[in-house]
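User: Quick sanity check before I run a bigger batch. Here is a single chain. Can you write out its predicted 3D structure?
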Amino acid sequence: MYKEEAIAVAKALANESRFKVLMQLYIEPQTFKNLKEISGLEKSALSNNLLRLTDIGLIEKHQHGFYRITKDGKKLLETLADFIKESSDRQRETEIANAERHMVQSFLEPHKRNTRS
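Assistant: Done. Predicted structure follows.
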């Protein structure tokens, strides 16, 4: 069951328009009209995207026609942001380690040649 849910969430977030809508709702609740203006989507496309995000529990329609992100939606975006930050940090650490290793090798290479002579 978790596998199907994970796939549904991944597919939903893989769509750039849905992801942008979710991020906008993370900032603040929005009406359909505002989301349409912000996203530039046609009514039917926006409606389909909102339905998909609602069906998987990332957003909900609230009073007076406002859409807002759910706790699960917030947690998902925050977890994704943390993952990206940590991944970037790891990548940077790897780049630094590779640069240091290259410097050490460059420094030692002439000394290796001198000891062989």
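The chain has a mean pLDDT of 87.

User: Great, the batch can go ahead then.
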